[in-house]
Amino acid sequence: MCGRYTLSKLEQILRQFPGITALPPELAPRFNIAPTQPILAITNEHPNEVTHLYWGLVPSWAKDVSIGSKMINARAETVAEKATYRRPLSRRRCLILADGFYEWRKNPDKTKTPMYIRLKSGNLFAFAGLWEMWSSSDGSELPSGTVITTRPNALMADIHDRMPVILPPSAYKKWLTPEERSAEEFTGLLEPYPADDMEAYPVSSRVGSVKNNDRRLIDPVERDTLF
Fold it and tell me: Is residue 226 part of a domain?
């Protein structure tokens, strides 16, 4: 799964996405983004803008937003089949901006080590995401999103049995196609990112608390200094 990630290299957004003409105001680096918090994304409805989504997909038919906390991830293997995800896969896709993510590796002694995973280049990247628009009874609207996950690559296989789908820049244009398309047209993009282009290292257990949000969370640490 993907339940925590970072977006700190905000200066790279306009450089890596040259078509973007608008950014939300007062952006700040974030080192511990968690479910139900706002996330930055580019939707296929407005491919030249970066916007905020609620992390946790809230379908239009939902009675309230609480369902979103259970829908932070969608599995690539079934995303074109499940009714909740098939519609947004054909109509509402998005790029969720990130520069790293966390996962907890299970150790032989049954403890868990928090790991930080990023591109070796250090560059900003994009998760494959889906989005929806939910309307409350008072007429207010909430755009929400989910991160698509897939099987692990060779690097991630030693850490977890799932990883987020990181799209290569060559896939951005197709993923952000504004017109409704067959859901099956996009499943071929939902593959593990090349392991050789990624790196992972242990970080402080402080990342386990969403109250912590500082640059020290992504500093590498030795195993015996994790706690």
Answer: no
Catalytic: which of 11, 26, 77, 103? 103
Under 8 Å between Cβ of 128 and 140: no
Specify the number of domains making up the chain. Answer: 1
Catalytic residue, candidates 2, 81, 94, 141: 2
Does residue 179 fall inside a structural domain?
A: yes
Entry pTM: 0.96
Q: What are the residue ranges of helices labelled H in 29-111?
A: 83-91
Give the Cα separation of 211 and 120 in Å (integer). Answer: 28
Report yes or no on 199 lying in a domain. yes
Active site residue 103: yes
Q: What is the pLDDT of residue 137?
A: 81
**Tokens 């038919």 found at:** 61
Residue-wise pLDDT tens digits, 8-36:
999 999 999 989 987 899 999 999 999 99
Question: Which structural domain, as residue segments, surrounds residue 11?
Answer: 5-221
Q: Is residue 222 flagged as an active site residue?
A: no
CATH of residue 157's domain is 3.90.1680.10
Number of Cβ atoms within 10 Å of the Cβ of 53: 24
Residue 85, CA atoms < 13 Å, CB-side half-sphere: 26
